[in-house]
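Purpose: get a first structural picture of the assembly so the mutagenesis plan has something to point at.
Setup: two entries, given in the order below. No constraints added.
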Amino acid sequence: MAKIIVIRSESIVRFCLSSFRNVVCIGILFLSAYGAENTLLVFRNAGINYEQVLKGLNEELAKKMKINDIIVPKNFSKKDVEKYMAKYKPDVVVLMDNNSITPYKEYQADLPDDTYLVPTISLMGVLINKTIRGLKNATGINYEIPIVTSAVNLRYILNIPLKKIGVIHREYLAEFLEKNRVYCANEGIEIKDILIRTQPDKDYRKGIRKAFKKLAKVEEVEAIWVPNDNSIINSDYIVNLWLPLINRYGLPIIVGVKELVDPKINFGSYAVLPDHVSMGSQAAELIFDIMDNDWQVDTEVEQPLSVYQIINLKQIRLKNKIPPEKLRNIEKVVK
Amino acid sequence: MIIGMLLCTGTYTMFKNVQKNDSFRYLVFVPFFLLHSVVLSQKLYIYYPVPMKPRAIQEQFSASCPGFEIKVFGRNNDFITIIKQDSPEAIITKTELIRYLPDYTVKLNGMRQGVTEESYVLMSVNNPLKISALGPEKVIGVLDFLGRTKMFSFIKELTNTEPKIKRVAKVEDLLPLLSFDMAKGVILTEYNSTYIQEKSKLTFFITPIEEKKYGIISLAIKNGIDGSQIEETVKKVVPIMGIDKWQK
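Result (C-alpha cells, whole complex):
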C-alpha cells in the first residue's frame, strides 16, 4: 500500500515538473514570438486611394508585422508624430502625402544627434525624391508616372512610331523632365519640352497657346504629355484654350487624371494613373528590403512600377485607328 | 441547373394558366428566375497573368459560358483570398498555382501551339545575363503568381540559384523594372517575353531556361463536385489568353 502511494507521489511530482516545463516553454515561445513581431506605423490621409495603398501593404505584411494605421488631420504636426512614435515604437514608418511627410521631417530634425532613426518610406506626395531631401534613413516611391511609361504604352496601343513627345510645363518639373529625357531616349523617344515661365499675373494662356503651336507645327511631336499642374490645366483653360488647340491639331493628349479623359469633356485621349494597390505592394517590397538590411535604407527613391490605363475612344479615334486586340490590354475604355 | 429551369418553367406555366394579368405573371416569374440564377449557377473563378486585362477575359468567358458565375482576377492575392471565401466549383489558373490548392483537381490543360507546358526565360537589357551568374547580390524581377515565400522557392527550383527577387503583379510591370534599372533582369514565360519585346525598343537579351518546363494553364474542379458540364463549356472557350485548345 505504502509502495503504491510512493509511486503515485513520484508520478504526481513528475507530472507537475513536466507541466511546469511545458508552461515555461510555451511562455518563452510566446514571449519570443511577441517580442519578434515588428511594427509598421502608417500616417495617411483619408480617401479611397490611400485605402488602396494600405490594402497592398496589408496583403503583403499583415502576417509579418503589426500595422498601425493613423489617419492624419489637416493640422497634423510634429508633436502628433512624436506622440504616435512614442506610443507605437514602430520599426518602420510609411508616410503618405506631404501632409504626413512634412511634420515627420520636422520631428526627425528635432531629434538629438545620437538618436536611432526609424526608417521611413514616403508615398503619394508631390515629387517625393525632392520632398524627402534632408530626411535620413528614408526612401520612397515617386507618385508621378514617368513619361516613358505612358509614351511606350501609347506607342504600343496606337501602333505609331512616336519618336517625339511634347511637354508644356513650369519650372518645378525641370528635374523630373531631365530624368525622363534619359528614360525616353533609351526607348527612342525624344522629349520636346517648352517651359512656361511663371507670370506675375499667373496668366499662362499666351504661353500655352504659343508652346502648343510650336510643338505641333515646328517640332512635329506626335503626342502631348500634360502634367498635373492646376496652373496650366484648369476648367477655364481646358474649354477656352486647350480644346480649340486639340481640335485644330488632333494630337493625342496624355493626362494623369481620370476626370480629364471623360468623353463629356473630351480633353485627354489617354490617362495613365498610379495603380494604388500595386503601389502598396511595391512599398511592402521596400520594407522587406529594409528589414533584411537591419532596418537601414540602402535604396534610392523608386519610380512607380504599376499603372492603371484609361483610353478615351471618342477623342483618340478622331485621328487614330486602334486594333481591337490592343484595347484588351487596357484597364478601362471609355466612349 | 436543369432542375431550376424546370421549376421556373413549371411556375411560369402555372401562373400563365391561373392568372390572366401579364404584369402579375412576370412579377412572380422574373424574381424566381433571378433567384434560381444566383442560387444554382456554378462559380468559375479565373486568374491568369497575361497582358490581356481581367475585364476583357471576363467579357469573353461570360459570352461563352452562359449560366456560370464568372469572376476574373488580376492579382494573385485577390484570387487566393476569394477562393478561400467563396470556394468556387471551378478555377482556371496557372498549373503551378493549383499545386498549392489541395481542394482542387486539374481536369483540363490549356495548350499553346500543341503543347501544355512552357518554359521560362531570363531577360536582360544591353548585356546578356547568365543563369549561373544569378545570386543574392543580383535583383531579378518576377511576376508574382504564388506569393512571396512560394515565389522564392519557385525561382530557386527554376534556376538552382537564390537571387534577390522583386515581385510585380502585372506582366507589363516587368518592363519598368528594366527601364528604370531596378533589376538586372527579369524572369518570365517565353509567351510573356514576346509581349515585352513587342512593346519596347530596349535592346533585350534572352537567356532560355530550358531545363525545366511548367504547365501553362489548367482548369481545376473542386474535389467531390461533378465538373463535366464546366469542362465541356470551357473546352469551347478558345482562342483566349494565347491558349488555342483545352485537353484532358
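Residues 2-36 of chain A form the longest helix (35 residues).
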